[in-house]
Structure formats: C-alpha cells, structure tokens
Design a protein that fits this description.
Elements (H helix, E strand, L loop, with lengths): L8 H8 L3 H18 L1 E2 L2 E2 L1 H17 L12
Antiparallel strand pairs: 1-2
Length: 74
C-alpha cells in the first residue's frame, strides 16, 4: 500500500531527468509546505515562495540515484 504523503518513485525519477509534468507534480505535492515556509509576519512572501521553488527544482536536477551517501555496513 502506497503512502499518500510520499511521491511515487517513478515521479521522482522523471522529475530528476527534467520531465516538465513530473517537476510540476513535485511542486504541487510540496506546494502547501512551501507556502507555509514562505510566511513572514503572518503573510506569504511571494519572493520567498519563488526562491524555495527555485531551490527545490535546482536540487531535483542535482539529485543522483547512483551515489550512496553512506557506505553500506554488513
């Protein structure tokens, strides 16, 4: 059973390879969290919201599936 709070793996793979519809899906998935993070003095700051979205998209294109962050221990 899939967790509705997680993006499907296939969507992440497509987004990291630059598929526009997958990138849009990632942005939609995180839109509420981004909006909350962009609140300043009780109001959503559109510049902050745009900055967060830009950094998320940039991070998608840097993401690599072939690298392991930690060595596997046996």
């Amino acid at each position: 059973m899939e967790d509705p709070n997680l993006l499907p793996y296939e969507t992440i793979v497509r987004a990291t390879s630059g598929k526009p519809e997958a990138v849009d899906e990632v942005l939609r998935h995180y839109s509420k969290r981004i909006r909350i993070a962009a609140i300043e003095n009780g109001h959503v700051n559109p510049d902050t919201e745009d900055s967060i979205k830009s950094r998320l998209v940039a991070a998608l294109f840097k993401f690599r599936f072939d690298e392991q962050p930690y060595p596997k221990t046996e």
